[in-house]
C-alpha cells in the first residue's frame, strides 16, 4: 500500500465536517479506529504487533536470520510517532511519522535491505496531552518518567480519570518494557514552524527541544451582579487574567520566548455576573531552563501584583514541565550527513515530542522534520506537500537502513 493510499485512508477519521480539523482524543472512537488501522497495516506487512496495557503499539520487523518471528527485539531501531491530535488539530502532526514509517519499511524492502537489527514502528498514546493535560503521557509511562499511580488520577475536562478511561478501553495500565530493547529512536514529524521554508529545504534534522511547561493560573475573586455592583466595589478576577495574558505576551517578546494562554475556564460564566474565579493555562517555552523560569516568575509576579490591586488572589500551579533536550549529536550528524544534494540542515524545535521523552530516558534519539509550507501547526491549516512527504519517507528509509546495519 502506497504512502498516498495510506494517507487517503486516514484522512476522514476524526475529521470535523465544519472546520476540517481533527478530533482524535485518546480512547475515543476516532483514536480507537486509528489503532485498529495501525494493527491492520502492520499485519499486512508481516510485522509482529505488540500492544501494552495503555494502548501503545509497536509493529516489529524482526531480524530474518533468527528464523523466528517470536524472538524479543534486542538493540532495536525504533521509529514512529503518535496518532492522537489536539482539539481541532491538523492532519500531519503525529500521523505523518507513522504513515512514513510504514512507507519507509516498504521502500527498504523494495531496495532489498536486510536489517541486522530489528526495526520497530511505534505509536505512543496521548502525546498531545489534549485530553488528560500531560503531554507525551504514553511515552512517559513507558520511560518511567511518570508512574501509573500518578497518571491514573489525571482527569479530563469531564472529570473522567485516566485510569478509568484506560480500563474502559480494555487495558490494564501496564506499560511495555521497551527501553531496554531499543538501541535508538528516530521520529519523523512535520515541522511546526518556518525554519525549513526559509531555507528552502524539504527535510531537516533536529538538534534539540526547548524546555517548556504548562502552568495553571487560578484567579479568585467575588461573584456579583454585573449591573448593580459599582466598578470600584468589584473584586473581579477577569481583570487579573486579562492583564496577565498581556504581560505574558510582552515578556515573551522581550526575551525571545513563547507564552500562550490558550485555555480558560470562568465561574459562574454568566453574561450578567462578575466572575468568582478564572482559571487559565499558560504554555511557556524558552531557549534555556533559566530563561523559562525567569519568564514564568515574571509573569507570576506581574499577575500577583495586579490581583492584589483588585482585591483578588492568584495561585500558580505547574502541571507539566519538561527540561531542555539535546539530541545525540553523533546520531544527528550521522542522520544528517552524506546525502544526495548535500547534508540535511540541523534545526532546533520549540515543540515537545515523544522523541524528547526517550532521549531524556537515555535512548540515543534523532528527529527528521518535513517542510511545512504554511508554517502553521495545531490547526486545520497544517500542511505538507506530497513531494516533500516522499522525500521524508526516503530520508527515513535511508536513516533506518544505516542504523539497522
Total number of domains = 2
Which structural category fits the helices and strands? alpha/beta
Mean pLDDT comes to 92
Beta strand %: 15-25%
Q: Low-confidence parts lasting 5 or more residues at pLDDT below 50?
A: none
| CATH class assignment of the largest domain | Alpha Beta
Tally the helices: 12
Q: What is the CATH topology classification name of the largest domain?
A: Aminopeptidase
Looking at the chains present, what oligomeric state does this protein adopt? single chain
Main beta sheet strand tally, sense and closure: 9 strands, mixed
Shape: globular
Protein name: Allantoate amidohydrolase
Pfam families: Peptidase_M20
Family: Belongs to the peptidase M20 family.
Keywords: Hydrolase
Characterise this structure.
The chain is an alpha/beta fold and 405 residues long. The chain has two domains: 3-210 and 324-403, Zn peptidases (Aminopeptidase); 212-322, 2-Layer Sandwich (Alpha-Beta Plaits), CATH 3.30.70. The protein is 34% helix and 22% strand. It contains twelve helices and 15 strands. Strands 1, 2, 3, 4, 5, 6, 13, 14 and 15 form a nine-stranded mixed beta sheet that branches. Helix 3 (95-110) links the parallel strand 3 (76-81) and strand 4 (119-123). The chain is globular. Belongs to the peptidase M20 family. It holds the Pfam family Peptidase_M20. Keywords: Hydrolase.
